[in-house]
């Protein structure tokens, strides 16, 4: 591109840098206003989280003050300790880890295999079935809640973890996501070569598809783990706080109990969120990349 | 993809039986031929049926936990079913529907769902669009902003709602304190109608703006650079480029996010449930922010009428279908005109 030749005269100081910018994916350098806006949004996003920690570190009486506390107090450890035992968070953590772990793992494997079929194999009804997959993303979960509850009640599974796990084993988004990834990431030649060597479909999946899909599987696994960990409606309906709570049910219970101790509630909320924020701090870049990649349609 | 298939289909004749191939020139025994034919048949069966084996787990699970409940909810909505004995079903026809349509609280919940949906979705998507535009510039520390904006997505509804209850507190909440600093009197964010709906919407906006911004950003990065270049050649400034290049290219993505956000807004449940100071499912003492999701829960699990709750669920579903059709019509119109 000839940058200088035909440029319009107005406000063009940045134009000559264009080719470089294009390579990086952006168009132009951001000005100071852009940085101010971004900083404001970053603060807005993070402030409630930081303030959770501040409130959790205070004495309850000191929360009811004007102005509200802006800095950490000294009660953090005590509050965390009480919240941990009051809300039975240890058991809740174990439960949620089991639920989210099993769900994420199953979703990842099933989605990869189905996504591979939709991306690379030809079969009758493929397009119609893919449409159904996309259509299922539109069905609101509230619709299935009542019969599922009846089923669970009938099976005597109330308060049992399998009642939470089973309905969360399937994800249309996951299938869609893996299909998008494999369309690009898995060269047809690789599959052909394996075929020519006499590999059956299952061998192809095991030795070629899984290794090729590994980065996307990791991202999808994290996304699904986050989603299942944060799931609220269904666990809230089938699990009671006393039975077998997940973290969300336990944390919600803190706010709904008769303890008016806000700093304890905040300590519980902090504990419930912390593991995911840690995952996020470590793998944030990959998760961001995964969401952006799943968003692009092809 | 076509070539991939053709080669794959041709290969059994060539190399399907490669592992045990006799040395070239040696006459093939009958046994060898039979072995080859068997391998070839097995190969064809594999190619033909394995795709179905690969997709069937998803569909089986979807049948059990998606489609069957959907249909069954419709069936249950025509019956009187109580939470205490969910298997006892008495046919009542459409009475559950007439019952809820006669209930003022249903219409109240429907209106609240609509208004909360609008005041949470519209600002959220507009801000996400603006943010994505800024993130699409060349930036220092761009990953930091993306991760920071997405952090609320990793926070659960339960934790977020509890924090916002405190921030929106009437007497000691930080938001009223900040408003007081600029001379605005305390607002009762939990008990007044519009403030409480704005507060609930704020939780939604806080959680999802960054997520939507990333989706827009991904779509923006897929727009070919030469479109901007030729627009620049025609003398378009940044704003004109945004309106005449970026927005049209983003149309499908914007429609997609509108649909997804609308579905999310129509199901709002955890935020209003936990924002309630009275710890009930009524959405505030005056039902001022009771959504359809809460109303469904109240009918089904508080009042224990599962049949009526099913009717609410199906009504919500029908509303979503209407929204889907409207969306489809609009997108076709846009495509025809664009």
Automatic annotation (TrEMBL), chain A:
Q: Which domain of life is it from?
A: Bacteria
GO terms classed as biological process: transmembrane transport
Q: How does it sit in the membrane?
A: Multi-pass membrane protein
**Where are the annotated segments for Disordered?**
1-25
What species is given as this protein's source? Streptomyces cadmiisoli
**Gene Ontology CC, one term:** plasma membrane
Q: Where in the cell is it found?
A: Cell membrane
Q: Which family does it belong to?
A: Belongs to the binding-protein-dependent transport system permease family.
- Keywords for this entry? Cell membrane, Membrane, Transmembrane, Transmembrane helix, Transport
**Pfam families with a match to the protein in the record:** BPD_transp_1 (PF00528)
Residue stretches making up the ABC transmembrane type-1 domain: 93-283
Record-given protein name:
Carbohydrate ABC transporter permease
Principal cellular location given in the protein's record: membrane
Q: Which PANTHER family match?
A: ABC TRANSPORTER PERMEASE PROTEIN MG189-RELATED (PTHR43744:SF12), ABC TRANSPORTER PERMEASE PROTEIN MG189-RELATED-RELATED (PTHR43744)
Tell me where the transmembrane regions lie.
Answer: 33-54, 98-119, 131-152, 164-183, 204-226, 264-283
Against Gene3D superfamilies, the record matches this protein to: MetI-like
From TrEMBL, chain B:
Report the record's Gene Ontology biological process terms.
Answer: transmembrane transport
Q: Which GO terms describe its cellular component?
A: plasma membrane
Q: Which PROSITE patterns match?
A: ABC_TM1
- Domain of life the protein comes from: Bacteria
**Keywords per UniProt:** Cell membrane, Membrane, Transmembrane, Transmembrane helix, Transport
Task: Spell out the subcellular localization from the entry.
Answer: Cell membrane
Family of the protein in this entry:
Belongs to the binding-protein-dependent transport system permease family.
What is this protein's name?
Answer: Sugar ABC transporter permease
């Amino acid at each position: 591109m000839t940058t200088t030749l035909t440029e319009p005269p107005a406000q063009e100081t940045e134009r000559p840098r264009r080719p470089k910018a294009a390579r990086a994916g952006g168009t132009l350098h951001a000005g100071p206003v852009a940085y101010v806006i971004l900083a404001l949004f970053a603060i807005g996003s993070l402030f409630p989280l930081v303030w959770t920690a501040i409130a959790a570190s205070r004495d309850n009486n000191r929360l009811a003050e004007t102005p509200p506390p802006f800095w950490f107090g000294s009660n953090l450890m005590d509050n965390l300790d009480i919240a941990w035992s009051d809300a039975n968070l240890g058991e809740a953590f174990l439960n949620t880890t089991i639920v989210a772990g099993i769900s994420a793992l199953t979703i990842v494997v099933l989605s990869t295999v189905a996504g591979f079929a939709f991306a690379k194999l030809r079969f009758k009804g493929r397009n119609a079935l893919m449409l159904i997959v996309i259509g299922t993303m539109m069905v609101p979960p509230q619709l299935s809640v009542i019969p599922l509850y009846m089923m669970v009640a009938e099976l005597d599974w109330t308060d049992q973890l399998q009642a939470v796990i089973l309905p969360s084993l399937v994800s249309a988004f996951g299938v869609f996501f893996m299909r998008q990834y494999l369309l690009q990431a898995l060269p047809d030649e690789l599959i052909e070569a394996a075929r020519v060597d006499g590999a059956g479909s299952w061998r192809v999946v095991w030795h070629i598809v899984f290794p090729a899909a590994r980065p996307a599987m990791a991202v999808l696994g994290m996304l699904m783990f986050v989603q299942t960990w944060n799931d609220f409606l269904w666990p809230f309906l089938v699990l009671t706080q006393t039975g077998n709570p997940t973290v969300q049910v336990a944390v919600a219970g803190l706010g709904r109990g008769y303890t008016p101790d806000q700093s304890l509630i905040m300590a519980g909320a902090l504990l419930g969120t912390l593991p995911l924020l840690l995952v996020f701090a470590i793998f944030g870049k990959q998760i961001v990349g995964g969401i952006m990649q799943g968003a692009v349609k092809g | 993809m076509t070539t991939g298939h053709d080669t794959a289909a041709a290969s059994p004749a060539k190399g399907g039986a490669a592992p045990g191939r006799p040395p070239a020139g040696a006459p093939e025994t009958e046994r060898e031929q039979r072995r080859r034919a068997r391998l070839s048949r097995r190969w064809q069966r594999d190619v033909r049926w394995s795709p179905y084996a690969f997709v069937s787990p998803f569909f089986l699970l979807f049948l059990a936990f998606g489609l069957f409940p959907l249909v069954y909810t419709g069936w249950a909505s025509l019956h009187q079913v109580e939470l205490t004995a969910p298997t006892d079903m008495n046919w009542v026809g459409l009475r559950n529907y007439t019952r809820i349509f006669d209930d003022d609280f249903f219409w109240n919940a429907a209106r609240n769902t609509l208004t909360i949906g609008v005041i949470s979705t519209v600002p959220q998507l507009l801000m996400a669009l603006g943010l994505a535009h800024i993130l699409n510039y060349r930036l220092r520390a761009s990953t930091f902003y993306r991760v920071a904006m997405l952090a609320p997505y990793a926070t659960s509804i339960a934790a977020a709602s509890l924090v916002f209850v405190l921030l929106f507190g009437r007497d000691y909440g930080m938001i009223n304190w900040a408003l007081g600093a600029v001379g605005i009197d305390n607002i009762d964010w939990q008990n007044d109608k519009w403030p409480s709906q704005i507060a609930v919407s704020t939780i939604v906006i806080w959680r999802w703006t960054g997520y939507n911004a990333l989706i827009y950003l991904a779509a923006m990065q897929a727009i070919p650079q030469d479109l901007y270049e030729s627009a620049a050649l025609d003398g378009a400034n940044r704003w004109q480029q945004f309106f005449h290049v970026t927005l049209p290219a983003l149309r499908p993505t914007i429609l997609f996010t509108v649909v997804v956000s609308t579905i999310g807004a129509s199901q709002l449940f955890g935020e209003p449930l936990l924002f309630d100071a009275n710890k009930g499912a009524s959405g505030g003492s005056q039902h001022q922010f009771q959504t359809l999701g809460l109303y469904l829960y109240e009918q089904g699990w508080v009042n224990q009428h599962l049949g009526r709750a099913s009717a609410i669920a199906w009504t919500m579903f029908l509303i979503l279908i209407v929204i889907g059709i409207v969306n489809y019509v609009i997108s076709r119109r846009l495509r025809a005109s664009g």
